[in-house]
């Protein structure tokens, strides 16, 4: 155990910090759930890609830096420290990219990876269906092979970023006689293909953060399939697997939230009467710090060849409830002003805590509800009966 | 000792509940989000039911009822997430006007107008950062220091303050604080009036919050019974059941404190502060838990704008922090419990603390 | 609604207060889970019965005062206020007594009620079996009729007070071919009958608060059966029903605990660093007060002919978790001294918080675990699917 | 940056764990409750494994290892609820003696005896109201003001203080505080030594508490898999699963802070206080939750003396409040977070706060 950074690691940190100091937009971008904000964020992805900072763990040949997990953590720390924009491209670079590198053909990699990395082609994700949420294997949408094409019919829902994205990656039932996890394939569909209809779904803040996608005899070439036919479940599971799950929620994000919360508390301390706030602020620091330490420990273990599986469910439960707790605490500190939208003249310096609070409500739901995660912890980690 | 509502109170509450559940649909609430927001026809219906006149004293043309008569109605308003400004006006502003009417002709006149269904009054308590529904009010009850000003709404400049809850139409007012005609209570009487208003506001909001909590639980139970995953309704999962059971426990043990506090503000308002703070805290917790668990049980659907749940959840988040946030009411209880002279324990369930502890509220 | 006591109610309060001031032992009795303490408590029951204060809601003919529920609450408030001894006789007077009055024959009432009320005969309760805890209908112990006797075989467990009591009331399977809720009967067994073996079970504090009872060809007369043969389940359920459930845990008890907690907090306030204690103390007051108010409301409703059913589960969850919360808070205030037994020289004025804390751990378990109670709330009160 | 244990550290911890799980049975723990309580044979086995000598510096005949080498062993001692006084002696008292040995011959001598397995030392930190295992110790490390006294146990009068946990044999000592031979550190050096001991004590107890939590979860999972109600194991109920899952989450996120804190006390003890307090708080919460949920999952059985669970639960209740209770450690974190000069945030995960904030600990 050595909890000091190496000179190389410190140099990387310094380099990232400098680059971000130069490049991070002075004004916050608009929400990427608006048309204009989406394009601003797409531009930021391009800037990142030009500096080879788009996805530091990717191999150099794909515009990455071949960073290991500790280096990635350092990058993330600096990224959140700098207040850099959220990653509109996360479906592509965190979820699809690594999967494509593992399962894609040479042609697929060539066709998709660079365009994805540069922000030129943005990706939405298409797993869930109205009847297949927590029960993802209940997928019913079909992609029926006709010669060198698949003909797609059905419906996806909760597809993040789909309103403004260019492509969606989905799993469809390619064997109509199959059931559950069998007979599914992993297929890419351009969102402007004939027969595709995207219906935006507004989230709690009123912005269309996700969408329903309807497929009506949509035709895509067989070359749009990733991996073998009817092997889609296994590929999708690896996409949803640990290492990317870890990357979807890097600890730096929560550490910065905890830091802002502590600052908010310092600032308002004399007015705060709520008897639970002091304890909650201490717990917020502890939680964010624990999540960071745990991630460093996991990263160290993985770098030494360790494996990790159902433990990811512990992380999911922890960060999502920590995020709720921190935002609830912030609203308690703000008191009656907490309900005001940031642009309200009387809002003062309420900041974006309300928005963060709304977003935090989704944490225990998406990427597998916390109820499902707790089942996994009990059954797979602790070995309790099903 | 009888801790039940009278048959008349219950009948009235039931009939208003029936009306509200029939008329106040989510569609109608959503429609009211357009424009300045009031649903004129709905307001007229509420007037016809006599609700705004309930707490206007008989000598001013009203029904001379009290907060206890109204409390279950407030709860039902929460249950349907009524967006109209009935409750603040009928149970907070109206008794405040009545309190001041003996020494103030303008207050007496406005009470007559309320009783006749001809005027609406919005109230700006110093603890709240904005005035709800000032945009559709005819009169504003405002604080200048501790003075109470009664200002015609067209004499005030209203600055819109958007809330997370689109049903809450908030404004900060600016007016000529030096105009002598507005002043309906000076520093001393004003302090007492604002203090009493705060207690009523806390109790009333507690009832709204309890109703909101119950409304969210009801929607979630229905949803969990309909929505299937893994071949059975999600509500058959014990974790989902227990989320809802936890909400039910919290709501149940907010209910009696609210009714007791409503009794206190009606019967002995000068000694109602501890009961009021208890009610508000308990109901606030119940509502926050219900919002959280209801969203969780709804899954991704609960995170959308199109699902009606957020109408309730956002109201709960907003109201929980108005009329004294949790810290304000905790601090009152905490300070009171720390006094050596405070008697609690089994034989003191229905004691009312002495009024001197009220100071902190103004 | 009228939240003032009537002059008659105030007079009753005054009378109880006076009587208790005269009679409550100056020194606390020993635990009734010891032989000596049990006898001290038996004596106290006798004193209560002599003053007709043993069970104020019982009819005058059985030594009660025919009090209504509000009067009972007033009595309880004064009882706990006076710090009077715990009721060793609760199985008899709260659970069995009312059931006996409802279902017993004239002879049974005559035989048992007075002896029960005076503390002369103390009762244990025999519901659970090793395989029938939460699943009470899984009872397997049998009482087979032979002429005018039942021959009893089997085993009961978690039988409170059985170590020192004289009698136990049980349900046994009288129809050996029956299953679940059918074929059970409600039967009284003297604990000194041949074939009865009582094995004490020590609880967390080391004292034998309950016992296992083994029945080996135990013979009791048919006259020891309460109600009809094979109708025992229904009778047992009415014994476990609301009104007595309410009486098992009167709010006064928790209000006095909250009061002591507030006093402890006032006393130690300057040393308490724990950031969660102030909030917890406020919550304790609120919880105890809410439970009292709710009970008054329920009592008022019942007195007007209202009924109550699954709502009792709300109470059970609430008071049991409130009791845990209050005792945890007290131990937090006491800090490192909290682990010391009261007789330890360094314990100082730690009082009986530790004992109370240990006992509070049983609250969410007995009389139906809180998990079962939450199921009942969800299924019966809220109508969720089974 | 490498947050893993070395292969040697892991091998040692695993082999000690194997030994402990084989030898330290609940039956053996219960047997030790009779008499003064030490299990002489077990102690001898621990000595043979070299555990008491681990943290004795090499120049005093020990193995010269540090707290990080020992931390997983402490966790395993918690997991089996070891009642022997190994952990306080090896990881708190021994490093304290080592710290003072340069200026104190008696300390150096006692270290030699520890390394040889010939002496046991109990420690009485001012924050703890009693000294654990003083009755079987040869030496006592005691505080007189901030001075450190090293007292032969037969020179002290020991007053027994019964704990809820029969495995904890507590005493308050009385001794001649004026005898100059006992004094091994004066006010200043003593303050630093007690402060460092407190941090070690907090981290060590955190590891014990984590182990206790894990031990209780393991027992409960087994019980819930065996015990049947309604025709299936109770562990198949989602509520029971989630009780255990909640414990697992808390334990998991106490683990890394403990290892980090152990690293801190080993590498930079003067700046270890924040990490130590974090570790103790997180582990304390995990252990309290595990005790509560484990009892609940065991049902009535969990409330009995004959079920082994209480051996773990009572230890958890006791240790959570020793070596600084929650309030003490919260207050340290709280005061530190309130300082404007305190830097937290993503880039400061492995920063160690400056030592001046240590004052509050002595």
Helix-strand layout with pairing:
The complex is a heterotetramer, with two copies of chain A (386 residues) and two copies of chain B (362 residues).
Chain A (H helix, E strand, L loop, with lengths): L6 H17 L11 H16 L18 H13 L8 H14 L2 H12 L5 E4 L15 E5 L2 E12 L6 E7 L10 E7 L5 E6 L8 E12 L3 E2 L5 H8 L2 H7 L2 H18 L8 H27 L8 H23 L18 H8 L9 H12 L5
Helix pairs in contact in A: 1-3, 3-8, 4-5, 4-6, 4-7, 8-9, 8-10, 9-10, 10-11, 10-12
Chain B lengths: L6 H17 L2 H7 L7 H9 L18 H13 L6 H16 L3 H11 L5 E3 L7 E2 L6 E6 L2 E6 L4 E6 L6 E6 L8 E3 L1 H40 L1 E2 L2 E2 L4 H30 L5 H26 L10 H11 L6 H13 L24
Parallel strand pairs in B: 1-3
Antiparallel strand pairs in B: 2-6, 3-4, 4-7, 5-6, 8-9
Write a structural description.
The complex is a heterotetramer, with two copies of chain A (386 residues) and two copies of chain B (362 residues). With 386 residues, chain A is an alpha+beta fold. In chain A, helix 8 (251-268) runs parallel beside helix 10. Chain A folds into three domains: 7-88, no CATH class; 123-230, Butyryl-CoA Dehydrogenase, subunit A, domain 2 (Beta Barrel); 249-381, Butyryl-CoA Dehydrogenase, subunit A, domain 3 (Up-down Bundle), CATH 1.20.140.10. In chain A, the strands form two sheets. In chain A, strands 1-4-5-8 form a four-stranded mixed beta sheet. In chain A, strands 2-3-7-6 form a four-stranded antiparallel beta sheet, with no helix packed on it. Helices cover 45% and strands 14% of the residues of chain A. Chain A has twelve helices and eight strands. Chain A has helices spanning 7-23, 35-50, 69-81, 90-103, 106-117, 232-239, 242-248, 251-268, 277-303, 312-334, 353-360, 370-381, and strands spanning 123-126, 142-146, 149-160, 167-173, 184-190, 196-201, 210-221, 225-226. Chain B is of the alpha+beta class. Chain B has a domain at 198-338: Butyryl-CoA Dehydrogenase, subunit A, domain 3. Chain B is built from eleven helices and nine strands. Chain B has helices at 7-23, 26-32, 40-48, 67-79, 86-101, 105-115, 187-226, 238-267, 273-298, 309-319, 326-338, and strands at 121-123, 131-132, 139-144, 147-152, 157-162, 169-174, 183-185, 228-229, 232-233. In chain B, strands 1-3-4-7 form a four-stranded mixed beta sheet, covered by helices on one side. A three-stranded antiparallel beta sheet of chain B has the order 2-6-5, with no helix packed on it. Chain B is globular. Chain B starts with 6 loop residues before the first helix and ends in a 24-residue tail after the last helix. The model of chain B is unreliable at 358-362 (pLDDT under 50). Chains B and C meet through helix 7, strand 9, helix 8, helix 9 and helix 11 of B and helix 3, helix 8, helix 9, helix 10 and helix 12 of C.
């Amino acid at each position: 155990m050595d909890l000091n950074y190496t000179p190389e690691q410190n140099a990387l940190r310094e380099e990232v910090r400098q680059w971000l100091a130069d490049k991070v937009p002075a004004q916050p971008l608009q929400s990427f759930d608006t048309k204009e904000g989406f394009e601003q964020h797409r531009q930021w992805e391009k800037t990142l890609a030009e500096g080879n900072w788009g996805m530091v763990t990717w191999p150099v040949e794909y515009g990455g830096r071949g960073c290991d997990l500790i280096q990635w953590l350092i990058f993330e720390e600096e990224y959140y420290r700098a207040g850099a924009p959220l990653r509109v491209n996360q479906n592509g670079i965190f979820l699809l990219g690594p999967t494509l590198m593992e399962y894609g053909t040479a042609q697929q990699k060539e066709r998709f990876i660079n365009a994805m990395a540069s922000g030129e082609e943005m990706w939405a994700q298409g797993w869930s269906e109205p009847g297949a949420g927590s029960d993802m294997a209940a997928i019913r949408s079909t992609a029926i092979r006709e010669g060198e094409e698949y003909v797609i019919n059905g419906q996806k829902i909760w597809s993040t970023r789909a309103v403004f994205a260019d492509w969606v990656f989905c799993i469809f039932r390619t064997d109509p006689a199959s059931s559950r996890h069998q007979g599914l394939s992993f297929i890419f569909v351009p969102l402007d293909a004939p027969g595709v209809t995207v219906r935006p779904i507004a989230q709690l803040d009123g912005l269309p953060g996700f969408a329903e996608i309807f497929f009506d005899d949509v035709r895509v070439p067989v070359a749009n399939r990733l991996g073998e036919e009817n092997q889609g479940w296994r590929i999708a599971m690896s996409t949803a697997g640990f290492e990317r799950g870890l990357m979807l929620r890097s600890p730096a994000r929560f550490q910065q939230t905890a830091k802002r919360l502590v600052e908010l508390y310092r600032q308002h301390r004399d007015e705060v009467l709520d008897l639970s706030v002091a304890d909650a602020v201490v717990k917020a620091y502890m939680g964010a710090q624990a999540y960071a330490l745990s991630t460093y420990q996991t990263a160290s273990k993985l770098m030494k060849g360790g494996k990790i599986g159902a433990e990811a469910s512990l992380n999911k439960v922890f960060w999502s409830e920590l995020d709720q707790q921190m935002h609830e605490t912030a609203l308690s500190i703000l008191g009656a002003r907490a309900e005001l939208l940031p642009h309200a003249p009387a809002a003062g310096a309420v900041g974006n805590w309300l928005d963060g609070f709304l977003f935090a409500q989704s944490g225990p739901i998406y990427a597998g509800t916390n109820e499902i995660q707790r089942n996994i912890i009990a059954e797979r980690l602790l070995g309790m009966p099903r | 000792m009888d801790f039940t509502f009278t048959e008349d109170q219950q009948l009235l509450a039931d009939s208003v509940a029936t009306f509200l559940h029939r008329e106040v649909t989510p569609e109608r609430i959503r429609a009211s989000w357009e424009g300045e927001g009031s649903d004129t026809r709905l307001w007229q219906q509420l007037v016809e039911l006599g609700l705004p006149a309930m707490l206007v004293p008989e000598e001013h043309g009203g029904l001379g009822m009290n907060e206890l008569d109204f409390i279950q109605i407030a709860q039902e308003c929460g249950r349907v997430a009524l967006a109209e400004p009935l409750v603040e006006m009928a149970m907070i502003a109206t008794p405040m006007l009545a309190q001041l009417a003996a020494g103030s002709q303008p207050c007496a006149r406005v009470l007559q107008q309320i009783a006749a269904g001809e005027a609406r009054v919005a109230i700006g308590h110093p603890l709240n950062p904005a005035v709800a529904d000032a945009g559709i009010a005819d009169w504003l009850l405002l604080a200048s220091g501790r003075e109470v000003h009664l200002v015609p709404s067209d004499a005030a400049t209203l600055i819109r303050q958007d809330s997370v809850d689109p049903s809450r139409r908030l404004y900060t007012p600016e007016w000529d604080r030096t105009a002598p005609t507005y002043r309906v209570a000076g520093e001393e009487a004003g302090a007492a009036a604002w203090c009493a208003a705060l207690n009523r506001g806390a109790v009333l909001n507690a009832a709204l919050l309890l109703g909101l909590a119950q409304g969210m639980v009801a929607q979630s139970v229905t949803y969990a019974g309909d929505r299937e995953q893994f071949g059975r309704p999600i509500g058959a999962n014990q974790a989902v059941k227990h989320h809802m059971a936890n909400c039910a426990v919290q709501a149940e043990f907010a209910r009696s404190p609210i009714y007791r506090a409503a009794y206190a503000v009606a019967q002995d308002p000068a000694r109602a502060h501890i009961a009021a703070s208890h009610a508000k805290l308990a109901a606030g917790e119940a509502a926050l838990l219900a919002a959280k668990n209801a969203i969780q049980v709804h899954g991704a659907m609960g995170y959308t704008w199109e699902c009606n749940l957020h109408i309730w959840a956002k109201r709960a988040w907003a109201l929980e922090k108005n009329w004294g946030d949790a810290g304000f009411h905790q601090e009152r209880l905490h300070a009171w419990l720390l006094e050596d002279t405070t008697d609690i324990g089994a034989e003191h369930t229905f004691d009312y603390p002495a009024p001197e502890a009220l100071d902190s509220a103004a």
